[in-house]
Amino acid sequence: MEKMYYDIDFEKVPKHIAIIMDGNGRWAKSRMMPRTYGHKAGVETIRKVVEEAQRLGIKYLTLYAFSTENWKRPKDEVSALMKLLVTYLRKELAELDKNGVKINTIGNISKLPQVCVEELEKSKEKTKDNKSLVLTLALNYGGRADIIDAVKNICAAVQSSKLDINSIDDDLFSKYLDTKDIIDPDLVIRTSGEQRLSNFLLWEVAYSEFYYTDIHWPDFDEEELQKAVYYYQKRDRRFGGVK
């Protein structure tokens, strides 16, 4: 057993943790390096966090890797991010598969470069039967866009008489979202000091706990993940009720 930094109750570990990986650029800037240097360091952090999540018994890990708004960034930075995605998948796929990690995506990945789409589809196919951890990469993802698409599809189903409007409730609506195959997050972590959702899982985080840290993503390690889980376990989750 590797070192435990906090007294974690393994019976109360969150089933699903979602992370807004923020601060790569600021981390690089503080070292007088280009932003791409920070993104490369951030990829190394992903490896450590995935391994620690498995060790703690977390079953779902969702990473906000590239939002619908990130296309506004400089073209060279976007290109570098896409290359890092391909490099990560090619380098880590065998190990992820060996460790029972299932790779999943949310967002419209068809808009990504073809090589990214091919590597993602290959990775998803190879790991589709794995059960240890579902690693979901949010790519070209936006919570508002996902909700709008769900509304359009529900409206189309009602108009074609495939769906009774009176049957629409929370559970049915959730089945029209990209996240239909994964449970809602128990805990949302955002690094680098910002305290906003940035269009991430807007429907799904209705009753999630939130943990914010000033640590930039490249410096977020096993100890920091344990700290976030420890914080989560101290929360009193009432889901709108009274205890």
TrEMBL record:
Cofactor(s) essential for the protein:
Mg(2+)
Q: Where does Mg(2+) bind?
A: 22, 209
Q: Does the UniProt entry include the keyword Transferase? A: yes
Q: Which UniProt keywords apply?
A: Magnesium, Metal-binding, Transferase
Q: Answer yes or no on keyword Transferase.
A: yes
| Record InterPro entries | UPP_synth-like, UPP_synth-like_CS, UPP_synth-like_sf
Annotated coiled-coil segments of the chain: none
Q: Which GO terms describe its biological process?
A: polyprenol biosynthetic process
For this protein, the record's SUPFAM superfamilies field holds:
Undecaprenyl diphosphate synthase
Which molecular function GO terms apply here? ditrans,polycis-undecaprenyl-diphosphate synthase [(2E,6E)-farnesyl-diphosphate specific] activity; magnesium ion binding; manganese ion binding
Residues forming the catalytic site: 22, 70
The free-text cofactor remark is: Binds 2 magnesium ions per subunit.
Q: Quick one: a GO cellular component term?
A: cytosol
**EC number(s) on file:** 2.5.1.-
Q: Where does substrate bind?
A: 23-27, 35, 39, 67-69, 71, 73, 190, 196-198
Top-level lineage group: Bacteria
Top EC group:
transferase
Assembly, in brief, is: Homodimer.
Entry's NCBIfam families? PRK14830.1, uppS
Per the entry, what this protein does is: Catalyzes the condensation of isopentenyl diphosphate (IPP) with allylic pyrophosphates generating different type of terpenoids.
Belongs to which family?
Belongs to the UPP synthase family.
Return the protein name: Isoprenyl transferase
> What is the organism lineage in this UniProt record?
Bacteria, Bacillati, Bacillota, Clostridia, Peptostreptococcales
